[in-house]
Specification:
This protein is mainly alpha-helical. The protein has a two-stranded antiparallel ribbon with strand order 1-2. The protein has helices spanning 12-41, 45-69, 73-91, 99-107, 125-132, 139-150, 154-159, 184-213, 215-224; strands at 161-164, 171-173. It is built from 9 helices and 2 strands, in the order αααααααββαα. It is elongated and about 70 Å long. The protein has one domain (12-176, 183-224).
Length: 228
């Protein structure tokens, strides 16, 4: 079986990607401060939803980093799936007619995937992915593959194989919590996806901050575009 490097650290490319992860955490906290001070500090239901989403995003990022540093690819991918979920579900506030009323129902326990958007479409995870797919072409494939890491699937069976001897047909199993057979590229890719998922969330968070801080401008834009 493969062994960890003597210093138990990843290569420079992976470490650099993790620095970008930390930068996004700091940006999320700054955006939250900006949101809470916008429009003279008024507080709306969507603010509460955003605070919960930010909390989940930075907590997930912290756990994801620890998993990468401890060479746990299986759980890192599951955490990536969670970060995508945060971005997807926060984006739903831009698909409904009355975002604040929508959030109030969520606070009462309503499941987002049981609710409908302004066009009457049920906002399942698959539907939310389809809405973002035109801008993020990588999302549908990555989301589908990662779902196999949330539930026990063939991914876990294949990931437990360390080596197959073609001549003898024997299999060397990796029954360990570390995943050492993945090259640096695999680690940088999973971190890059995590970072981009966080970027998607931040884009919608920035959208809400602008909406909150500039209600008159947003109202004029909606009127011009005939958006109710």
């Amino acid at each position: 079986m493969a062994n960890k490097p003597e210093n138990n650290k990843h290569g420079q490319n992976v470490l650099k990607s993790l620095e970008e992860l930390e930068n996004r955490r700091n940006k999320l906290l700054k955006l939250t401060e900006e949101m809470l001070s916008a429009y003279k500090g008024a507080m709306y239901p969507v603010d509460i939803f955003a605070i919960g989403a930010v909390k989940r995003a930075i907590s997930t990022a912290a756990g994801f980093r620890l998993l990468v540093e401890s060479w746990n690819m299986i759980c890192a991918r599951a955490m990536l799936r969670m970060q995508i979920d945060t971005a997807l579900r926060f984006s739903s506030i831009f698909l409904v007619k009355k975002p604040h009323d929508f959030v109030v129902e969520i606070l009462k326990g309503q499941q987002i995937n049981k609710t409908k958007d302004k066009d009457g479409n049920k906002m399942t995870d698959a539907y939310l992915v389809s809405k973002l797919a035109p801008e993020y072409s990588w999302l549908p494939v990555v989301y589908k593959n990662l779902s196999g890491y949330v539930h026990l699937s063939e991914h876990h069976l294949f990931d437990s194989i360390e080596h197959i001897d073609d001549e003898s047909g024997s299999v060397l199993w990796a029954i360990t919590e570390t995943d050492m057979r993945f090259p640096d590229k695999s680690w940088t890719e999973v971190i890059a996806c995590f970072n981009e998922s966080t970027d998607i969330f931040m884009k919608y968070l920035e959208g809400w901050i602008f909406t909150k801080a500039n209600p008159e401008i947003v109202a004029k834009i909606k009127k011009k575009l005939n958006i109710k």
